[in-house]
Amino acid sequence: MTQTTLNLPRGPVMVDVAGFSLTEAERARLSHPLVGGIILFRRNFQNIDQLRALTAEIRALRSPHLLIAVDHEGGRVQRFLDGFTRLPPMSVLGEAWDRDQEEARKLAETVGYVLAAELSACGIDLSFTPVLDLDWERCAVIGNRSFHRDPEAVAELAEALQQGLGRGGMMSCGKHYPGHGYVEGDSHHLMPQDDRSLAQIEQDDLVPFARLADAGMGAVMPAHVLYPSVDSQPAGFSKVWLTDILRGKIGFDGVIFSDALDMAGAAGAGTYVQRADAALAAGCDMVLVCNQPEEADTMLAALLPPPQPKLAERLERMAGKSRAEDWQLLIATPDFAAAQAVVKQLAMPKDALAGPQVGEAH
């Protein structure tokens, strides 16, 4: 049976799939007009050949193809391991910054390049990276995922990483806006609260977001964190944070992805349809529904998104640059092997994998 490619604009919902290839039910879900992207997890990765076959299968479903995303930051948040360069936690780059800033910038650029080119060669459009949260040494779920405590260091290193991502064919996604590093709680399991004033947050945590927005950041993912001095809604459901501050004050015009709506930090917004409604009404472009296929189907059947005149243009910017086959040729070159060697030499410190697992369904 020949498969027909559907001509459908990308919708505002990102979903996931269960295994190494698509089931008929998943093909039907991915063909829904409200779907615009898919996020992959460790459970979707067996080896590089299988991953390339899966992304080719997803891309063949629709034109323009569904955006294919993954959380592939380094350290304990790296979904694909076998055949990929092991990426260090970002705190390793922060430690390099304390020794030699220029060298640290070069290392960050190389890490971004290797990260993006290896994913691009597998047909993946974007990784939800870099983490722009500051390391206040309070938040275990962020921990060594953060570059540094100093907002200037985070901004410089993240911008260098963003340049490397661009060289590897990929846009960046800064998270978790406006900063998840100051709270102790993990928003996968509860609703953390940050009681600081807007002025305090602007002075520290917002610095990297503003700098990367000026430097062409492609997307932002807000935190499921409550900042009661600023708004009564968590950032991902807050028109103040997303529309007034991020779009208005900072001037960001890329994609705003919700963090996963199955997280406990999102539960206060109600059912999945209500959560998606609230996120889209606040200013999100695309909502993520992970690990809950039945909820995803219910939501897709009931969701009536607001008008999103810039959605197609914003999502198109996030699509990978060049064909996977071109990246496969590039990552086989001696020059790329030299870049991989630089990244491999960055120590995976003994605590590299310490901290809570992030975003995997068990």
UniProtKB/TrEMBL annotation:
It comes from the Bacteria. This is Beta-hexosaminidase. Its main location: cytoplasm. PANTHER family: BETA-HEXOSAMINIDASE, BETA-HEXOSAMINIDASE-RELATED. The record marks 186 as: Important for catalytic activity. It comes from Chromobacterium indicum. The keyword Cytoplasm applies. Belongs to the glycosyl hydrolase 3 family. NagZ subfamily. Its EC number is 3.2.1.52. The lineage of its organism: Bacteria, Pseudomonadati, Pseudomonadota, Betaproteobacteria, Neisseriales. Pathway: Cell wall biogenesis; peptidoglycan recycling. Keywords: Cell cycle, Cell division, Cell shape, Cell wall biogenesis/degradation, Cytoplasm, Glycosidase, Hydrolase, Peptidoglycan synthesis. Residues 21-295 form the Glycoside hydrolase family 3 N-terminal domain. It is found in: Cytoplasm. The gene is nagZ. Plays a role in peptidoglycan recycling by cleaving the terminal beta-1,4-linked N-acetylglucosamine (GlcNAc) from peptide-linked peptidoglycan fragments, giving rise to free GlcNAc, anhydro-N-acetylmuramic acid and anhydro-N-acetylmuramic acid-linked peptides. It catalyses: Hydrolysis of terminal non-reducing N-acetyl-D-hexosamine residues in N-acetyl-beta-D-hexosaminides. Substrate binds at residues 71, 79, 145, 175-176. One of its GO terms (molecular function) is beta-N-acetylhexosaminidase activity. The active site is at residues 188, 259.
